Amino acid sequence: MNNLIKYEQRSSSFSEFSQHSIRAHIINQLSQLGFPLKSIQNAILYTNSSDLKTLIFFLSKGPEGWDHEFIPNEQYLCEICNEKYAEHSSFIRKDEDKENLKKSIHSAINTSFINLQEEEKDEIKCGICFEEIFDQCIIPGCDEHFYCKQCITKYLEAKISNSQVSGIPCPGTTCRTIFSDDFIRSFISPDFVIKYDKFCKREKLIKDPFIKFCTQPDCEGYIRGSSTDVHQFCNICSHEMCFLCGKDWHLEVTCEETEIKKYNKWAEGKDVKVCPFCNYKIEKNEGCNHMTCIICKYEFCWVCLNPKFRNSGPCACPQQYNNDYNHVDYIDYDRRRVIINRILFGIFIFLFWPLLLPLAIICAPTYIMVNATNDDDSDIYPYLTHCQQALCSIPLTICVPLIYSCTFIGSLIWGIYLLYKCLERRYRRHRGLYY
């Protein structure tokens, strides 16, 4: 009989521990999804559910409003979402039920909520698992939040496992209390103490500009050096390293040459080319030949490195034919059209601007004098005004041809430059000089 009682006590304690762990895990998951801790606590209290999907549905707002029940507080706002009654239209679907629900809200729901608050006055609940606290954890500097020792231990171990050891805060959303080093060590196991010390030390070393970690696998060592003292040895495994690049020591070879040599060795046997626009190295392992550089977003054909055309299809190249990888020689027609347009515009300006100069010189003063002659007023002021206009027309007469000539010269130079770049690209493509 005694053994049966002990077994039932153990089963009951195990069940409480299991439920405790499940709720703590669910709270952690909902917090990572972005739900406020207070809303999570209220959702668990009102639903009394440990199902993740049920709680997410309870805490999510649909296109027609909240799906959960409207539970008013003193400000007549919902205790769960802190919004008005009108935002819960998804829960209240039928018009005939609205009046009945309004009447029952103040009686049944509000009464149960008041009773729930009165019960909470008699017992202190954990802010993580929301169960009654039997073994309370006292947090120095925080008098607002209460937690189980077991929940705090799991909370600290989760933070340490994620390498978050710098300034671990109280789990309360509005609390600014930071756990001290002694407080953390008193709650975690010896294995986690080792991890905690390791991550704390690593964070301090990362902030030191004169420290770099060893490149050897499974080595926790580091080197300490400077720009003038680059040849260093790991403090644990004595591995030779270069402080400038943080790689293995390279005698009589610069860091850049080492990187190039390492890259060339890696690129052997791989389909690697550079972007024709920004020279960023790209490796192609599968897919069509239509490539887009991740750096400059330049679209080009992988085979011929020419730009992608709008009228060539999503994957095809303008030079590709018969659905194979053979490419014909051609000139970039879009670029050639731009070059021809600029050259023709320059020729047009060059041929016609000499005619514009005498026309501007003759027509401007003539137009002003005709207006002055047709003026019936005998006052000398209009004549002075016309003279001022004639003087102002002289700079205009000089500037117009200069603008045309500068436009012509600029267009001609730009067209020649584009033609040169196009021919140079074609020559480099034929020679195989993609780099």
Automatic annotation (TrEMBL):
It is an enzyme of class 2 (transferase). Gene3D superfamilies: 1.20.120.1750, Zinc/RING finger domain, C3HC4 (zinc finger). GO terms for molecular function: ubiquitin protein ligase activity; zinc ion binding. Its main location: membrane. Keywords: Membrane, Metal-binding, Repeat, Transferase, Transmembrane, Transmembrane helix, Ubl conjugation pathway, Zinc, Zinc-finger. It catalyses: [E2 ubiquitin-conjugating enzyme]-S-ubiquitinyl-L-cysteine + [acceptor protein]-L-lysine = [E2 ubiquitin-conjugating enzyme]-L-cysteine + [acceptor protein]-N(6)-ubiquitinyl-L-lysine. InterPro entries: E3_UB_ligase_RBR (IPR031127), IBR_dom (IPR002867), TRIAD_supradom (IPR044066), Znf_RING/FYVE/PHD (IPR013083). This is RBR-type E3 ubiquitin transferase. It comes from Stentor coeruleus.
